[in-house]
Amino acid sequence: MAQYLRNQLELFINITAHKKDYIAATYYVPGELLSLFDVQAVYIERFAGFVAAWRMFESPAARAKTQGFPVGRCSYQALFHLIIEEGIIPKPVSFSALSYTCKDAWTYCRDEADRYNTPFYFIDVHKTTGSNQIIYLADQFKELYEKLKSIFPLRASIEEVVAASNKALEIKQEIDAFGMKNPESVNIIDSFKLFPLYNDLGKASTVEILKDFENKIKSKSVSDNQHDIPRILWHGIVPLYKNSLLREIEEKLECRVVGEEMFDFGNTKLSCDTFFEDLAKRIISSRFFTRESRIEAIFKGVKDLDIDGIIHFSHRNCGFLPPLVPLIKNKSKEQKIPFVEIKGDVVDPAYFDEEQMWEKLKPFYELIHGSK
Question: Does the pTM of the predicted model rise above 0.85?
Answer without folding.
Answer: yes
